[in-house]
């Protein structure tokens, strides 16, 4: 059965390389039996070829004001890509504009995209297979001055098969900040075969920016193994910057059971300031009842004053009512001047009416003189007439 499937795929690829241009009846096509590398070196104008697309690749096309439109090779489109509603494509049809052997523009489109090119003749290369395309695109990337100037990496990432994933891995392993970082990103988009290469890169790359980009790629990969590795990096990574970054990207996924408790546990087992700060911020990004419960507990019980301050700040962004209660409780139980000032500041940042009532409560209450002065200062910054009238009455 497997042998039959491989044979069918091979026949399909050959068939497409011989007749894919039939999908583009508006184009004036000149069929050319030549290799990609040889023809592109001497070509001026547009050439095109087709190769099988990676599994579950949405059909790419041009867009205008949120609607799919015709890709016109005579114009640069303002929008390009695919949407969640785009049907999958079996092939990538790659249109390349060459100028004396240099790439001016590269446009891959899917099976469900219309292309026009009035007045232009397209050289359609019928002898190109996936490996030819992968080799040519890889050379294109490595010969560019900086990053992925013409989208060759994106086109490479759309190719079916392990050879494309391996090519992206090799480019990433070169550890050149431009195309290596982007190669890591595109590996993350390949759910069928990207994870194994990301894991290998994590284990072999030196500490630095390229290695840290693996965190985001794992968060995009959406496989169980990718999330598990990201969680392990957040828990045990020796590079503090990479660990903190992994904590953030964990908060952007929805695949970790009881993530708020996991983040709080992380904080209790580290002395790294950046890890604590990122864990608190990540709790605020989850913005659930469970996450807000943990933030409130940190404000109330954590031994580190800076942790309490940051937790209170982020709690105020998500749950103003709980933040007001926590800040007033803190004013009654803490002695550190900086922490008290921060609590009053948080009260001042609550929604206007709520803030005014809370600050007036402080001014009228049994609090330290310095605390009342801070509350009075923030009250005087308001332009709310009702609040100003209450201040006049109080004075």
Describe this entry's structure for a reader.
The structure is a single chain. This protein has 395 residues and is of the alpha/beta class. Among the domains are: 1-128, no CATH class; 319-395, no CATH class. The protein contains 19 helices and 10 strands. The chain has helices at residues 2-19, 36-42, 130-142, 152-157, 162-173, 177-188, 194-204, 209-221, 224-236, 240-251, 259-268, 273-286, 289-301, 305-318, 320-333, 337-348, 352-364, 369-379, 385-394, and strands at 28-32, 45-52, 61-64, 67-69, 71-72, 79-81, 91-99, 102-109, 115-116, 121-125. The strands form 3 sheets. Strands 1-10-2-7-8 form a 5-stranded mixed sheet. Helix 5 packs parallel to helix 7 and helix 7 (194-204) packs antiparallel against helix 8. The longest helix is centred in the N-terminal third of the chain and has 18 residues, at 2-19. The radius of gyration is 29 Å and the shape is elongated. The N and C termini lie far apart (89 Å). Residues 1-14 have low confidence and may be disordered.
């Amino acid at each position: 059965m497997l042998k039959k499937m491989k044979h069918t795929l091979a026949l399909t690829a050959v068939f497409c390389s011989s007749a894919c241009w039939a999908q583009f009846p508006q184009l004036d096509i000149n069929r050319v039996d030549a290799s990609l590398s040889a023809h592109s070196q001497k070509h001026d104008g547009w050439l095109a070829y087709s190769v099988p697309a990676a599994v579950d690749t949405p059909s790419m096309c041009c867009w205008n004001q949120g609607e799919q439109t015709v890709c016109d090779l005579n114009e640069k489109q303002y929008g390009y890509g695919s949407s969640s509603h785009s049907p999958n494509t079996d092939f990538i049809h790659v249109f390349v504009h060459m100028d004396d052997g240099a790439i001016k523009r590269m446009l891959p489109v899917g099976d469900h995209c219309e292309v026009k090119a009035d007045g232009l003749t397209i050289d359609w290369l019928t002898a190109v297979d996936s490996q030819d395309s992968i080799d040519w695109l890889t050379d294109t990337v490595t010969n560019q001055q900086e990053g992925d100037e013409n989208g060759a990496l994106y086109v490479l990432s759309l190719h079916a098969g392990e050879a494309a994933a391996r090519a992206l891995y090799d480019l990433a392993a070169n550890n050149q900040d431009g195309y290596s970082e982007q190669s890591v990103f595109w590996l993350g988009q390949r759910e069928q075969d990207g994870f194994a290469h990301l894991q290998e890169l994590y284990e072999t790359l030196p500490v630095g920016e390229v290695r840290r980009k693996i965190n985001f790629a794992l968060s995009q990969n959406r496989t169980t193994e990718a999330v598990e590795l990201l969680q392990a990096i957040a828990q045990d990574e020796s590079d503090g910057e990479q660990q903190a970054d992994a904590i953030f990207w964990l908060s952007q996924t929805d695949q970790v059971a009881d993530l708020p408790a996991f983040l709080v546990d992380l904080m209790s087992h580290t002395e790294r300031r950046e890890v604590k700060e990122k864990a608190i911020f990540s709790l605020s990004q989850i913005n659930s009842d469970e996450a807000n419960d943990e933030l409130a507990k940190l404000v109330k019980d954590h031994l580190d004053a800076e942790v309490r301050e940051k937790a209170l700040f982020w709690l105020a962004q998500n749950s103003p009512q709980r933040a007001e209660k926590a800040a007033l409780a803190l004013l009654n139980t803490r002695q550190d001047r900086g922490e008290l000032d921060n609590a009053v500041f948080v009260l001042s940042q609550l929604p206007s009416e709520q803030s005014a009532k809370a600050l007036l409560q402080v001014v009228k209450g049994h609090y330290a003189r310095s605390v009342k002065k801070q509350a009075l200062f923030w009250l005087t910054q308001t332009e709310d007439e009702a609040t100003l009238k209450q201040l006049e009455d109080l004075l």
